[in-house]
Amino acid sequence: MSWSETLRTGVEAVRSHRLRSALTILGILIGIAAVILTVGLGEGAQQQVTSEISALGTNLLTVTPGSSTSTAGIRGGLGSASTLTLRDATALASPSVAPDVKAVAPVAQSSEVLTAGNTNWTTAVVGSTPAWLSVRGRQLAAGRFFDNQELSSDAAVTVLAPTTASELFGPADPVGQTVDVAGIPMTVIGVLTSVGSASSSATSQDDQAVVPITTATQRIFGSSGTSVQSILIEATSSSTLSAAYQETDNELLVLHHITTPAAADFTITTQQSLLSTATSVDKTLTVLLAGIAAIALLVGGIGVMNIMLVSVTERVREIGLRKALGAAPATIRRQFLVEASVLGLVGGVLGAGLGIVGAEVLPFFISNPIAISPAATAGAIVVAIAIGVGFGVYPASRAARLAPIDALRNE
Amino acid sequence: MTVIELDDVRKIYRSGTLAVEAVRGVSARIDEGEMVAIMGPSGSGKSTLMHIIGCLDVPTSGTYRLMGDDVSRMSEVELAEVRNHRIGFVFQQYNLLPSLQAWRNVELPLTYAGVGKLERRQRAMEALERVGVAEQALHRPGEMSGGQQQRVAVARALVTNPDLILCDEPTGALDTVAAAEVLSLLQELHRAGRTVVLITHEAEVAAGAEKIMRIRDGLFVGDGGLHVGAGA
Fold first, then answer.
1. pLDDT tops 70 at residue B193
2. DSSP string, B66-126
């Protein structure tokens, strides 16, 4: 008996018991849709985190003072005892020292009160260099960013992030206006565009005031030293990121007169490591949810087995007749396996359909994005067929083992 | 050519410690083109004998040759092939698949034989025509009378062009008129050269055969063959 004949027989058998087949298919359908949706939900959360982190700038390395050690704890002091200085940043910006570094932006940051007219707004004042804009991957909505001249002259200029601008100036154009930063009047020369996302890290990205780092440290924060809180480094491309990491590491060890890398008083963080920390929680949740969905799928599979066993018992006469007419045990087994996998396939396809529809509809009700991957969907359908076959094996071999006379005798 | 050759065939059923000898050393020959009735009351062992002759079961001891081949030691797979190619069954309850149209029921043995789709359809239609139910080809069993269903079953038995047509109480579920029609159909096939074996407990049906073999308590009565006039 050819495969196409066997398939036709299987489809006919499924169709001739509509209600029962529909219920079995429903079990598989729910399991598959649950798997696709939970995996999609986890995938969506990860994509969101990934896009938020890459919104902080691409190919980014962040150097922070102190070093985390393998025995936990942080070596070196933060804040006043910061070991990173403007000199480090200047050295790293040199193409001869670090050829794979595209741009360097030292950052000194503090929370300050901004006043415009009679409006007060407390926000993060970020001191940096003109390279900050490109390193952070930000764009200007209006005006311009400060230049090197303003940097070297400690100019009283600031660029506001969109939330800060609207809190201070409302709908009015802030460019050219004056804002008091910690009591020092500064001219607003530009406004940044929004990073365009509603997460907490994006919110802080949209609420800050950027000033030349010299202005920040010497005029606003009032610290006389040249230490900075972090140095942001942009590699020339994603492929040179690890080279840039090495160059930064070596140069800072030399500058800090440290001979053993284990004793470093700074830490270099890649976006990748930020990403893995941020997504690990999501992953755990995804695995948990997918586990529950897999149980749903297992129950669906047991449903297939149950129905196939009932079907074998109920169709003893049919099986006997088919054997009398010359069907070999293998043919009977194949027929029942095909029947079970047809149930699995239909359940899988419908479940994938429901999952995809759910992925479109659900985000309107639960704010979380759902990302459906074609590979996962195809995989789910394959799994559904495998469940049909897997749970069909036992009923099918029972059918194949029936002796034709026992089967025919049944009246 | 000898179609069926039974030599001291025995069948013992065991269930627990109890052993029942349903067929106790039966020997017989049925030649090509014969129409033979195996007749006996219920419990006589005729069903067991029918199962053995139909290759649905194998004897416990003794040999059974079908068209010269010893089938008594064949594997299940080989037996399936023998049933498919050499034997056409007609059962009391017609045993048609209710979900399939008549012609699809008839082509079923050909499907298992691996015959191509077009040829299957053509041969099924020919067989249906041969037994006079060509007009019902697209009907499902539930839409046909008992007599028509049994004719479809005969068509299914014929379609593989088997060496033996084996009928188990073929008229048992039919009214007198339909029973007579089916019986005369079988006689017609016999006259056309087919080998037909009828298993029955009814004397009238057995009388339709040219030879009657009576079985009682697992043994043939007499010399295992009483000749009667064909069609008598």
1. yes
2. ETTEE-TT--HHHHHHHHHHHEEEE-TT----TTS-HHHHHHHHHHHHT--HHHHHHHHHH
Judged by CB atoms closer than 8 Å, whether chains meet at A330 and B97 is answered as no
CB contact under 8 A, B77 and A405: no
Do B112 and A329 make contact, defined as CB atoms within 8 angstroms? no
Token digits of residue A131 = 């390279």
Contacting A residues, span 314-343, partner chain B, CB-CB under 8 Å: 317-318, 321-331
Are A242 and A272 in contact, with CB atoms under 8 Å apart? Answer: no
Name, in order, each residue with C-beta under 8 angstroms of A239's C-beta and a sequence gap of 6 or more: none
Q: What is the largest CA-CA distance in chain B?
A: 54
The nearest alpha carbon in chain B to A2 belongs to B114
How far from the centroid of its chain's Cα atoms is residue A369's Cα? 11
Residue of A5, A16, A326 with shortest CB distance to B84 = A326
How far is the C-alpha of A172 from the C-alpha of A396, rounded, in Å?
76
Residue A174 sits at φ, ψ, to 5 deg, of -80, -20
| Whether the Cβ atoms of residue A252 and residue A62 lie closer than 8 Å to each other | no
Q: Is A5 within 8 Å of B111 when comparing Cβ atoms?
A: yes
**Per-residue pLDDT tens for B61-78?**
999 999 999 998 899 999
CATH code, residues B33-59+75-227: 3.40.50.300
Residues with Cβ < 8 Å from A232, sequence gap 6 or more? A57, A60, A61, A62, A63, A104, A105, A106, A107, A128, A132, A135, A136
Q: What residues of chain B, 101 to 120, have a C-beta less than 8 Å from chain A? A: 108-109, 111-114
Q: What are the residue boundaries of the structural domains of chain B, listed by start?
A: 33-59+75-227
Listed residue (B70, B38, B129, B162) closest to A325, CA to CA: B162
For residue A29, give how far its alpha carbon lies from the nearest alpha carbon of chain B (Å).
Answer: 26
Name the residue type at position A234: E
Candidates B56, B87, B94, B100: best to mutate against A (most CBs of A within 10 A) is B56
Task: Say yes or no: B54 contacts chain A, CB-CB below 8 A.
Answer: yes
Provide the residue count of chain B.
Answer: 232
The predicted pLDDT at position A16 comes to 84
User: What pLDDT is stored for residue A209 in this prediction?
Assistant: 92
How are beta strands A157-160 and A208-212 bridged, if at all?
A: antiparallel
| Pairwise CA distance, residues B222 & A50, whole Å | 94
Q: Which of residues 6-45 of A touch B (CB under 8 A)?
A: 12-13, 16
**How many residue pairs from chains A and B have C-beta atoms closer than 8 A?**
65
Say which DSSP state A147 is in. Answer: -
Q: Give the model confidence (pLDDT) of A347-405 as tens digits.
A: 999 999 999 998 888 888 887 788 887 888 888 888 888 888 888 899 999 889 888 88
Closest chain A residue by Cα to residue B109 = A325
- Do A325 and B97 count as a contact with CB atoms less than 8 A apart? no
d(Cα B1, Cα B32) in Å, to the nearest integer? 6
Please name the member of A328, A405, A411 whose beta carbon is closest to the beta carbon of B77: A328
Strands B35-39, B211-216: pairing kind: parallel
ipTM confidence score: 0.90
Q: Which residues contact A287 (CB under 8 A, 6 or more apart)?
A: none
Instruction: Tell me the C-alpha distance between A282 and A49, whole Å.
Output: 9
Contact status, residue B50 vs residue B226, Cβ threshold 8 Å? no
